[in-house]
Structure formats: structure tokens, C-alpha cells
Amino acid sequence: MKTIKEKQEDIIEEFNAFDDWLDKYQLLIDLGNEQQPLDDEYKTDNNLIEGCQSRVWLHAEYVDGKVCYKAESDALIVKGIVSLLIKVYSGHTPQEILDNEPYFVESIGLREHLSPTRSNGLVAMIKQMKIYALAFKCK
Q1: Spans of all domains in the chain
Q2: Overall fold of domain 4-138
Q3: pLDDT, the chain, mean
Q4: How much is the pTM?
Q5: Residue 68 a catalytic site member
């Protein structure tokens, strides 16, 4: 299995293949559309991420010492963003998640191409993933 760093490098490489931000947005939308829909049982207020402009549900499970994330959003680009975060963090130990910042966000220029409210939402998604990792680590 790839490390979190290797997964981030793959994402950077994938996004760097495009020069135009419209193409990068399309890639985000495609990634969001490829993601498995979240079961309705997890679309609860408890799983809604505070601070996101659109609705984003994030569910985490602890399986064999690893954190597995699932998420969904009602906004296409946000769904793509959360799918990238899942691609990077899901399937890793809580400590690995806590030790690795999502530097790909800066490297692909994502943060600078998001509106301030979307950027806040991105920070909220990362924070929630880290909170789940910390909670599982403390169990």
C-alpha cells in the first residue's frame, strides 16, 4: 500500500498534467462523481461538517487499526475535494493521518482557486478527519 506522501505525489502529478484551471475543476468533478455514494444511514447531522458552505457528510470507521473514511457532498467540486482527502488518508493508521498534512492542496494550487467559504470548508474537512484519527488513536 502507498504511503500518504506517495498518494499526495500521485495527486500532484495528476493535477500538474493540466495547465488550465477549468480542466482541473473538471478533474475534481470527475473524481467526485466516481466516489461511492454515502449510505443514507450516515447522512446524519452528527456527520455534517460544520463550516462548509455546502453540505458535507463525513463518516469514519476504525478497522484493523486503520481509519476508513466515507463522505458525500451535495456540491460537485466539494465532493471532488473530499474524495481527494479520502484518497490520501483512508486506510492509514491514526498516527500516520495525524503526522501528515495535506500539502497537495497547496502544491496543486487548490486553496488559491477556492472561494473563501470553500477554503474554510476545506480546512473544516481536514480538521474533522484529524479529529476522527485522534479519537481512534485514543481508544
Answers
A1: 4-138
A2: Sufe protein. Chain: A (3.90.1010)
A3: 95
A4: 0.96
A5: no
